[in-house]
Amino acid sequence: MKKIVFYSFFLSLVAIAGCKKEGNYPGATISPYIALFDIRDLYKGNDVVLTESTMFGSKKITGMVVSDHSGGNLPAGLLVIQERRRLDQLRGISIAIGADAAKYVPGDSVIINVEGGILKRVDGILQITGVASTAVTKVSSGNPITVDRVPSSAVLTNPDKYESTLFVLVKAGFNPLPAPTDVLAGDKALNDGFGDITLHTETTAAFANTKAPFLANYYGIAFNKAIGDNQVIPQFRMRKASDVVVLSSTISVAPVLITGFISDVKGGDGNYEYMQFKATRDINFATTPYSVVVTNNANASVPTGFPANGWATGNMRTYKMNITSGSVKKGEFFYVGGTGKMINGSGSTSMSSSNWVKTLDYTTTNGDGFGTKTSGLFANSGNASGFAIFEGTNITAASVPVDVIFVGTGGSLYTATPTAMGYRITNTDWYDVKNPITLQDQPFYRAGSNTLNMSYTTADMGYFYMLGGEYNVALGRWMKARSQNNVLLSKTSAVLEIEGEGATVIK
Q1: Is the distance from CB of 72 to CB of 121 less than 8 angstroms?
Q2: What is the pLDDT of residues 129-145, one digit of tens each?
Q3: What kind of fold does domain 148-248 have according to CATH?
Q4: Domain boundaries of the chain, sorted by first residue
Q5: One fold for both 36-140 and 148-248?
Q6: Could you give the count of Cα atoms lying within 13 Å of 329 in the half-sphere of its Cβ?
Q7: Radius of gyration over alpha carbons of the chain, in Å?
């Protein structure tokens, strides 16, 4: 037994000696650069002295400059950089280097030795202080910067994540609407359909007296502002005049909004599907007719292929209902659908007392102008379906709807070549006829950035697709974008369940 132990010990020594003899693998080394993600994570409410120890063996940071002091609107003396070294998560940091911060411009790649600096909040802004301007080394210039589209709600929810990063607020307008003489100078509530964020413009900024536009894209950097003990709120600052890209200078109010629908009731769908709308103004449909078109792109729907005539394709692909009688008051719901007028299919609560401006037994009757009678207007196959409301009843391939919504993405919906074909959209909270960033034309669903859609619910359960959100008539825009809220109805559900809390609000 002693011999066995001795031989085992001897073999272990041989193995260790062999490893030492090879000696070709030097082992891992600590990167000289610490990610900005990790730098920001060091701060827990108290100042942090940046040493090789506190930075886990690193001494430097690196990133792309996004600050531009030429417009005179950024906090003086701060060099702002960002990068994605950790988990591809974009993070930024501001470094206080004094007047030399103005020497750097967006697209400069820099390395900064921050050893000996102090990570601290100054007036709410997390920054590195105590770093000499000579600690900054410019590696290259003119590098492209990808600018992320970030909704204001994300910044408001997590201001630390977006502080000292460059992003764009898309389709943003002021709340309240600016007067014709209003300019950018000062603090203004900027709303992009997801919430209000403060746009700060120094009165001495080069673009301070620029007229406040109605609707625009705003490029800029978020900085936090202290409002109390360890409390901050985000403040968005443009860098220069070209950081605002005007999209519209006029107010265009949608007369009708899509607020919900049921496409798959409990039991048979035939003659029980319906769509819910809300008016933003008084409408007499006898004098101002409208029409609703539903598209069904199930595999069995004909004609197959891309819809050359768009919403006017007809047959089993699109079905039209004309609204030529009845009326609705501003802020009221109204309905279009089968003659069943029940909340969740056969035997359910009657909705006959609701404002039905158009009903049609689509199981026995062809559509008004186009569309073949069918057992179900909407696809339940996983392929896309949707509907649009139009002002007027003469619908062609070129017709642009007043509002539109889609469920799902499957089927032959859009092609760019050889001739663009698809279902036209309009400017809404979900869709844009021009890409709001590239400004390229994209007039169809699934073209460019027009990819938002509702998700299918479980079949044959009686889900009502409720679309929430808040539309401001005075501003002619969505202050809170619509979102899908699936309301599971029973046979005894009341109308209040689809018209009450969670429904679209008009102000």
Answers
A1: no
A2: 999 999 999 999 999 99
A3: OB fold (Dihydrolipoamide Acetyltransferase, E2P) (2.40.50)
A4: 36-140, 148-248, 251-507
A5: yes
A6: 1
A7: 30
Per DSSP, the three-state class of 221 is strand
Q: Do 318 and 312 contact (CB within 8 A), yes or no?
A: yes
483's CB contacts (< 8 A; 6+ apart) are 467, 468, 469
Could you give the CA distance from residue 186 to residue 209 in angstroms, rounded to a whole number?
10
> Where residue 254 falls among pLDDT bands split at 50, 70, 90?
very high
Model confidence at 28, in pLDDT bands (50, 70, 90)? low
Of 288, 281, 366, the closest CA to residue 329 belongs to 281
Paired with 91 in beta bridges are 83
Band of pLDDT at residue 430, cut at 50, 70 and 90 = very high
- Burial label for 166, CB within 10 Å (0-12, 13-18, 19+), is buried
How many helical (H) and strand (E) elements, i.e. helices and strands, does the chain have? 5, 30
CA 422 – CA 413 distance, rounded (Å): 6
Q: How far apart are CA 318 and CA 310, in angstroms?
A: 9
* Residue the block writes with tokens 């109204």: 334
State whether CATH 2.60.40.1260 applies to domain 251-507.
yes
Q: Rounded to whole angstroms, how far apart are CA atoms 258 and 466?
A: 10
CATH 2.40.50, domain 36-140, yes or no? yes
For residue 478, give the nearest of 506, 450, 455, 500 by alpha carbon: 506
Do the bridges between strand 470-472 and strand 505-506 make them parallel or antiparallel, or are there none, so unpaired? Answer: parallel
Closest CA to 168 of 182, 155, 158: 155
pTM score > 0.70 for this model? yes
State the DSSP H helix or E strand holding residue 36, giving kind and residue range, or none if neither: helix 36-42
**69 exposed, middle or buried (CB, 10 Å; 0-12, 13-18, 19+)?**
buried
Average of pLDDT values for 93-121?
98
pLDDT value for 63: 98
Cis amide prior to 75 (ω within 30 degrees) = no
How many angstroms separate the CA atoms of 483 and 326, rounded? 29
Query: Is residue 168 classed as helix, strand or coil in its secondary structure?
Result: strand
Is there a contact between 333 and 345 (Cβ–Cβ < 8 Å)?
no
Q: Is 290 in contact with 391 (CB distance < 8 Å)? A: yes
CA proximity to 260, closest of 494, 482, 490, 478: 482
pLDDT at 24 over 60: no
Q: CB-based burial of residue 341 (10 Å sphere; 0-12 exposed, 13-18 middle, 19+ buried)?
A: middle
Under the banding of pLDDT at 50, 70 and 90, the label for residue 251 is: confident
CA distance 321 to 338: 10
Closest CA to 264 of 385, 366, 371: 385
Contact between 421 and 306 under an 8 Å Cβ cutoff? The reply is: yes
**Checking DSSP bridges between strand 196-201 and strand 231-237, what pairing results, if any?**
parallel
Closest CA to 150 of 210, 194, 104: 194
